[in-house]
Amino acid sequence: MTIISDRNHSNVLEEGTLRDIRAELPAVVSIVTTADNQGTPYGATVSSMVSLSLEPPLLLVCLESNSDTLAALEVGGGFVVNVASEEQQKTAFAFSKKGPEKFETTNWVLNSSGLPKLVDSAIVFDCVVTSLIQEGDHTIVVGHISNLEQSNEPRPLIYRHRKMHTSPTA
């Protein structure tokens, strides 16, 4: 296999063009939560979460490299991916903003690892950080899935055209 990489990172596209193209691609809305060494909760809404490997069970999320959530995650070593349900639109918007008050307006509990888990999420992945890779203005966080929970009828939120949408039914 040959891996081709342009480490020059020349700007071929204007930032606005790339944003417009990315807005066309539907993405599952997830909220990454974690805590620092003092137990202070942190969280951020992300649209870049994917399954990476079945064996071992790995997923990846991308966080802004300057985010408080990433800083807490780096110290604590664990995180939770809460796949937002249809009922969590307000929560997803709250966690897309900066500031600690987002946990004051949502229902959450501590999981068995002592990390914040959002109640009513469609799917919840408990993860342990296995690697961090900084690329551009984001950091790729790879996590080993240590536990998985799923609601009876998971209907995750979808982000497309810069708006939240409900999942289509089968």
UniProtKB/TrEMBL annotation:
Gene Ontology process terms (BP): pyrimidine nucleobase catabolic process
Domain Flavin reductase like: 22-166
Parts forming coiled coils: none
Protein's UniProt keywords contain Oxidoreductase: yes
Source taxon at top rank: Bacteria
Keywords: Oxidoreductase
InterPro entries for this protein: Flavin_Rdtase-like_dom, NADH-dep_flavin_reductase, Split_barrel_FMN-bd
Gene Ontology MF terms in the entry: FMN binding; riboflavin reductase (NADPH) activity
Matching Gene3D superfamilies: Electron Transport, Fmn-binding Protein, Chain A
Name of the protein in its database record: Flavin reductase like domain-containing protein
